[in-house]
Amino acid sequence: MESLLPLLLLLSITSIAGFIYRTKKGVIRKGKRLQITQQEIAGTYGDRLTILQFSTTFCSECRAAKAIVKSVVADLAGVNYLEIDAESNLELVRRVDIRSTPTTIFLDKAGFEIARAKGAPKRDQLVKVITAL
Questions:
Q1: What is the pLDDT of residues 9-56, one digit of tens each?
Q2: Residues 6+ apart with CB under 8 A from 115
């Protein structure tokens, strides 16, 4: 029985850590306020907002995130969505501190980061952020 106690403790700790990780994934947080240039993203800023999604080829969650973001911004004027291949843009990935994909960054009309989501952003939070701007 005593030998099971450390195992149960370890399982409890990893379960709690996994729960915390999943609840934070996809949550939109305040951005780092750094500027990303149009040359770096090989695209243009939106009149109101630019949404950058950093993805990789074999990332299944990236495809889900892309579908969510594109469906929300499809009919919105002044919002530009760009998907950035993280593997092909390593210098930018390092500069803006992308640690996992998908990561979605929201830029104001001047190219300054105002918010970011690690993981697929939640639809309701995405709508809330876009309408607030």
A1: 666 677 665 555 555 556 677 777 899 999 999 889 999 999 999 999
A2: 28, 29, 30, 31, 105, 106, 129
